[in-house]
Design the sequence.
């Protein structure tokens, strides 16, 4: 990656070719001055005439003048930097774990109810132009709500979710990719950037290998942000037997890493809210070109001020 910025009008950089000519002219003038200088035999008189002027002052003033011209030339070409700007359009697929382990009460009132509540809050905070889809992840993941900007219908679909058996992480990823394909194109007929937010608390029990599904998501350029939900001490009582339902953080983190997403942990409703906020800050903004001409103009002004001070020092006769 080059240290030089991009320019809106790079053809204007030709003006910088004049700088070597100015440097050559300055060196020629210095040589001519030394050749035709008046020779004084009385150095004391010479010191009083020139007022103790130092050679480096002239060089610094000239150097700063040239730097100011360089900065002005770059500013004229209108350099471009980058700034973070909120995405106007995107497709977000919410994958919500609906396995039986979500009935654990280590997160009040239950993992499932807390997850639905915070997912609703997260969705409502997304820009209106975002298409949001809902995928349930159990032993048989399904697209419960295709990508749409209809937040009311999405809220009703989210509220109607019920617990099911099994957890198929790999198939949940594949269903999320199918949901992405259903997203409508924009006015420019280009697909919007897509990302998946996967909320899960259990280990994979069914379906294809999650690692292979993650590679398919990577090939489709769809990052998967994972949220490992629940505490390490979580448990559920099923068929008279108590079972541990600690989140599989390692698998979820591997999915996120493979696809270029982010992996976070949430062990309470509040930490889930914070996790959603952190994830939204990751995919809700994008880098866009932005003019930085003012910065170069300010640098040119700084160099010019230093050059002017140098000229004043050369012209002034300081008391000795």
Sequence:
């Amino acid at each position: 990656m080059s240290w030089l910025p991009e320019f809106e009008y790079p053809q204007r950089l030709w003006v910088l070719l004049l700088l070597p000519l100015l440097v050559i002219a300055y060196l020629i003038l210095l040589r001519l001055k030394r050749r035709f200088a008046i020779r004084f035999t009385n150095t004391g008189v010479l010191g009083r005439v020139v007022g103790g002027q130092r050679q480096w002052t002239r060089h610094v003033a000239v150097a700063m003048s040239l730097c100011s011209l360089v900065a002005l030339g770059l500013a004229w070409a209108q350099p471009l930097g980058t700034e973070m700007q909120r995405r106007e359009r995107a497709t977000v697929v919410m994958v919500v774990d609906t396995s039986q382990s979500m009935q654990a009460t280590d997160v009040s009132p239950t993992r499932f109810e807390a997850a639905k509540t915070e997912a609703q809050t997260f969705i409502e905070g997304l820009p209106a132009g975002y298409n949001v889809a809902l995928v349930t992840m159990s032993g048989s993941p399904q697209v419960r709500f295709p990508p749409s900007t209809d937040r009311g219908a999405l809220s009703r679909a989210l509220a109607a979710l019920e617990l099911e058996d099994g957890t198929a992480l790999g198939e949940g990823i594949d269903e999320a990719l199918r949901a992405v394909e259903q997203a409508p194109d924009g006015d420019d007929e280009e697909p919007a950037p897509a990302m998946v937010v996967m909320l899960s608390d259990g280990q994979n029990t069914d379906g294809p290998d999650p690692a292979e599904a993650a590679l398919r998501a990577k090939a489709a350029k769809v990052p998967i942000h994972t949220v490992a939900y629940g505490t390490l001490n979580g448990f559920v009582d099923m068929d008279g037997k108590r079972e541990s339902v600690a989140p599989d953080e390692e698998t979820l983190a591997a999915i996120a890493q493979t696809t270029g997403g982010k992996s976070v942990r949430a062990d309470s409703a509040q930490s889930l809210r914070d996790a959603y906020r952190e994830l939204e800050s990751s995919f809700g903004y994008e880098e866009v070109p932005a003019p930085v001409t003012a910065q170069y103009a300010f640098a040119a002004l700084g160099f010019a001020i230093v050059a002017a001070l140098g000229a004043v020092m050369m012209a002034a006769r300081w008391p000795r």
The mean pLDDT is 81. Residues 21 and 27 are 10 Å apart (CA to CA).
